[in-house]
Amino acid sequence: MVLNVGQLFRACNPSKTLNYGDAKDRACYIDFAAVRGNDVVKELRRTINLSGDDATCQLFTGHIGCGKSTELSRLKQELEDLNYHVVFFESSEELDLADVDISDILLVIARQITQSLAQADICLEPTRFQKILHGAVDLLNSEVTGLKLNIPALDSKVGMSHKDGEYSLAFGIGELTTKSRDSKEVRSLLRSHLEPRVNTILEAINTEIMVPAKTQLQQQGKAGLVVIVDNLDRIDNLEKLPNRSQPEYLFVDRGEQLKQLTCHVIYTIPLVLAFSNEKERLSNRFGSDPQLLPMVRVQNRDQSSCEAGMAALKQMILVRAGQDQLSELFDSEATLERLCQTSGGHVRNLLVLMHGCLKKDDPPVSSKLLEQVISQRRYDLSKPITADEWELLRQVRESKAVRGEDAYQTLLRSLFVFEYRDEEQSWFDINPILTDAEELR
Fold first, then answer.
1. For a tag on the chain, would you pick the N or C end, based on fewer CB atoms within 10 A?
2. Which residues contact 406 (CB under 8 A, 6 or more apart)?
């Protein structure tokens, strides 16, 4: 098959997330479960499917760029194959991740659910919830000059039966959340009205949206309602309150409220919480530990090569190129192996390196070209590393461990160190891009 370089370039775009529900994207999907050490998607799915009508709330985390969104896309498709109604959305499209509160998250979830249910011909009459929103709109229209918002009349039904031109509840909430995201002033006013009413909002969502939705979904033969909130792992790790970071405030201090939605919910959370001193409190809040998606193993703890992991990463490049043979892609198999090994099993890193090579020249990628790209990537990653951090990296290289919240902040969040797992244990190792840095020799 003739190699289409433009198609390969687009397929290796590190910013693109595979949509598992799309047949073309699914053809590019590689199941890495066996070389990650666990099948997180299977565990998330089984927890939902075995719980029946009992609501569940699960936390999902991992390095940014390690493949969480793609795995959640696969989970969505598998749940839909089991006849669940799944609402899956990226919170980064709805929220200012530098400044998030519980009422913001609940409004966005309510908007996404009502919009999805309307498309499924589910009709709701959430009068109490709309009264709360009307109170917020009245406050904003009175306090903010020129701000005009629209939400449905209190006696209107929310569903596909709307007449042309009539506003849906989802549209009304969208007006609120968009203005809130784009203006700190609006966000502050909206929260002043909604935050004292969070428990009332939760009760209204559960009784006026969740209960009738689940009843009507059952009448349609659906197994249940699942909400997947992606990209909350990207919220900034800023101080929200004195001595409390934003992730700790949302998921530890206010986690009890986030888990009160009476449907199946999955939240992505920042990896920092899995290494925080608050991890036990987090697990107690939600009733289980966060599910972590590790890196694809390129080598084992004893430094021997993980042949299965390397084979899976090679296959990932080949399927995106639409090729069975590597001769048109690389000057030798050793060059492809070098690419996969240097990625450290971090899926986006692999695509970043391949994309970098394709920017410079057409395939076959030569060993010399790959080393140029690796060298530049190493330089960019090394620039912010301090002398103390180089010492921490040397310790990780020897001990295969990261201890303490401060060490996490420095090493893992900056992608200087990766976590790996096999069937028996987990360990850490430095990002292979840094292996040949002079500071580590």
1. C
2. none
